[in-house]
């Protein structure tokens, strides 16, 4: 930060043939485009997210046109943001594949519980390498089909394990909706519908175990082991309320 506390913002226009990627959120930048990036200049220079390349042609004060260009570059790079034109067909094909292969065919007695292959062969079959560049939609669909084909069908009638049950169609629909909305059930302001839904389910569960009119409080646990830990902690606090402040 300069001594006067003011940062000047400039624009660098970089010409380079490389295609940039930014983690899982990128789609790359066309190799024949100038990559425009913002940077902060001053006593302590801070470089931008994009790596600096050679052949810097000019730097100028940011104006509305430059800002619009930077936004355009950002939109190209962060292509994982939902876009009907780019993603609707892919998501439709993906969900169709999941419904046909992972939900309906996977629970058909005529099909196998698992198409077994040895680990070494499966590693050669599946392309699981981490890459700097994004895969195409067709490649992702191929991986989807391969993942389903080589996975255990836990909803199959011949799959017997005490920890699994068949996929519930309505539960599956609820999971898709939950993932699409991606709520965090912290407060009513953040997640109004799911907070009310949680209260209804908790009250019903308290009624089932014997609380009058379902009165009381409760929380959801991420699994059986955590739920048992909560129960032991509550029981200990009931019989030893001073446990948190220490015992003589």
From TrEMBL:
The keyword Methyltransferase does not apply. GO terms for cellular component: cytoplasm. Its cofactor is pyridoxal 5'-phosphate. Keywords: Decarboxylase, Lyase, Pyridoxal phosphate. Pfam families: Pyridoxal_deC (PF00282). One of its GO terms (biological process) is carboxylic acid metabolic process. GO terms for molecular function: carboxy-lyase activity; pyridoxal phosphate binding. PANTHER family: BLACK, ISOFORM A, GLUTAMATE DECARBOXYLASE-RELATED. Belongs to the group II decarboxylase family. This is Glutamate decarboxylase.
